[in-house]
């Protein structure tokens, strides 16, 4: 076995040991296919007020501009599907935000993986990315054979569906590269039909400015009144397109204790949410991704549903 193949095997084994569902690797190079798609999406203002999406256009498409001399993009996915979900007839929080903020949880695992690579393989330089830098996570994961991008624009796999986070290590180490898998959405339009705000404007294209996740998290101003009655009781994020996807029948509960929900999240009824105080907010969402909206943002979302 060549040292390149040996290193690849070592990295994948360690990723598994750290709890990642799977690990795929692709060549660090310019994303030629994605460039016109991203340009069109931005031009048509589908990013809404997410002005940061316009920044670092070249870096989003070329990882060698993020990590000089990089040779490989190591993509990893980490399951967050919960064993229990919120009760019926309550205000809803996206499943990914039930537990501790995934940025911190995954960053720690990536740091461990990078340290392992440096210790076992030698002088390797790289950077870890978790949804907080100009990296097209889903495009890299698809290139690395971890799944295909579904009609709802999320990464999908036949084995475990789509309830997982995507992260990367971009390194200056040559490795064996994986091949993309084929699309298995077929003629299914479940996600398109179910989207409450019709944000999936055509297969594989989501108008971010209409997405409930955008409206409840990214949008800092008031939610436009045109969305009144369309929010489907979501107050932080939205899981509708994933919940209806047939491939998510295969989702299995995660094994990451830090993603376990605060018990109050699963118990709170509509009245509890409507009467939430800042004190309760701080207690329930300490260290959670929900803190991104701040108490005022969550209250705005709750009030909008009344």
From TrEMBL:
Cob(II)alamin binds at residues 60, 131, 155, 166, 213, 238-239. It holds the Pfam family Fer4_16. InterPro entries: 4Fe4S_Fe-S-bd, 4Fe4S_Fe_S_CS, QueG, QueG_DUF1730. It comes from the Bacteria. The active site is at residue 131. Gene3D superfamilies: 3.30.70.20. Belongs to the QueG family. This is Epoxyqueuosine reductase. Binds 2 [4Fe-4S] clusters per monomer. PROSITE patterns: 4FE4S_FER_1, 4FE4S_FER_2. GO terms for biological process: tRNA queuosine(34) biosynthetic process. Catalyzes the conversion of epoxyqueuosine (oQ) to queuosine (Q), which is a hypermodified base found in the wobble positions of tRNA(Asp), tRNA(Asn), tRNA(His) and tRNA(Tyr). GO terms for cellular component: cytoplasm.
């Amino acid at each position: 076995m060549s040292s390149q193949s040996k290193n690849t095997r070592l990295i994948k084994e360690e990723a598994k040991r750290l709890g990642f569902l799977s690990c795929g690797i692709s060549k660090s190079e310019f994303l030629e296919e994605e460039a016109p798609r991203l340009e069109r999406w931005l031009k048509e203002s589908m990013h809404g007020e997410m002005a940061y999406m316009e920044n670092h256009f070249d870096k989003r498409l070329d990882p060698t501009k993020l990590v000089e001399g990089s040779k490989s993009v190591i993509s990893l996915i980490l399951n967050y599907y919960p064993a229990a979900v919120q009760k019926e007839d309550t205000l809803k929080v996206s499943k990914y935000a039930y537990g501790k903020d995934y940025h911190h949880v995954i960053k720690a695992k990536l740091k461990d993986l990078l340290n392992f690579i440096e210790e076992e393989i030698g002088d390797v330089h790289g950077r870890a990315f978790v949804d907080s830098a100009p990296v097209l996570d889903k495009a890299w994961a698809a290139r690395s054979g971890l799944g295909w991008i579904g009609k709802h624009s999320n990464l999908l796999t036949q084995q475990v569906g789509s309830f997982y986070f995507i992260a990367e290590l971009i390194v200056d180490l040559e490795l064996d590269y994986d091949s993309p898998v084929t699309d298995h959405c077929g003629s299914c339009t479940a996600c398109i039909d179910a989207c409450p705000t019709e944000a999936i404007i055509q297969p594989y294209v989501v108008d971010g400015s209409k997405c409930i996740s955008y409206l409840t998290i990214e949008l800092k101003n008031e939610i436009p009144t045109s969305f009144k009655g369309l929010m489907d009781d979501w107050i932080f994020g939205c899981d509708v397109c994933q919940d209806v996807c047939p491939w998510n029948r295969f989702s299995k509960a995660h094994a990451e204790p830090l993603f376990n929900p605060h018990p109050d999240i699963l118990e709170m009824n509509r009245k509890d949410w409507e009467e939430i105080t800042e004190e309760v907010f701080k207690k329930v969402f300490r260290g959670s991704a929900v803190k991104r909206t701040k108490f005022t943002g969550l209250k705005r979302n709750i009030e909008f549903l009344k």
